[in-house]
Design a protein that fits this description.
The protein contains no helices and eight strands. It is an all-beta fold. The N and C termini lie far apart (about 35 Å). The N terminus is likely disordered.
């Protein structure tokens, strides 16, 4: 099944390794169906972290299923409820996280509310 490419690619960072994730088509297997989606994937070998604009961060198991029991960030935009992606960190301040909404472009940090 063909999957349309988004009109814009986003600078999505892996929440574990803090490296830019690449956009690719992945095959998902679930008990009820099998399908393909476009998702961002971590560039680090064997990292299961994925991000999809519709469902946010998730972990892909070796068999192609998603593992919802693992801890992943669930940051939602306060304006439209869309899953936000990690867009920036500050190496000097390890706890700092900048999140961005792919829908409205709003930004927020873990230190304050919406900033853009």
């Amino acid at each position: 099944m063909p999957v349309a490419r988004p009109s814009k690619e986003y600078p999505v960072l892996c929440h574990v390794h803090h490296v830019k994730m690449g956009l690719l088509q992945i095959l998902l297997n679930s008990d009820s169906e099998e399908g393909q989606i476009l998702a961002y994937a971590c560039a680090e070998p064997d990292c299961p972290v994925r991000f999809n604009i519709l469902c946010g961060y998730f972990l892909l198991s070796p068999d192609g299923g998603t593992d919802e029991l693992q801890m992943v960030p669930r940051v939602r935009c306060p304006q439209d409820g869309v899953s936000m992606y990690l867009a920036g960190i500050n190496p000097e301040k390890k706890s700092f996280r900048l999140w961005e909404c792919p829908q409205c472009g709003g930004k927020r940090t873990n230190e304050e509310s919406l900033v853009g």
